Amino acid sequence: MLRGVATVSFFAFDVDAAKRWYAELLGSDPYFEVPGYAEFRIGDYE
Fold it and tell me: pTM, whole model, 2 decimals?
């Protein structure tokens, strides 16, 4: 059974807008953020 995905990378011209969109879609704020990068953790697999 699939428990999670280790890494998926998406690129966006407007990272702040992308962070808001993914946060709303996933129902969770980013796990880690630095300028130009955001990381979301989904599921129990790391």
Answer: 0.76
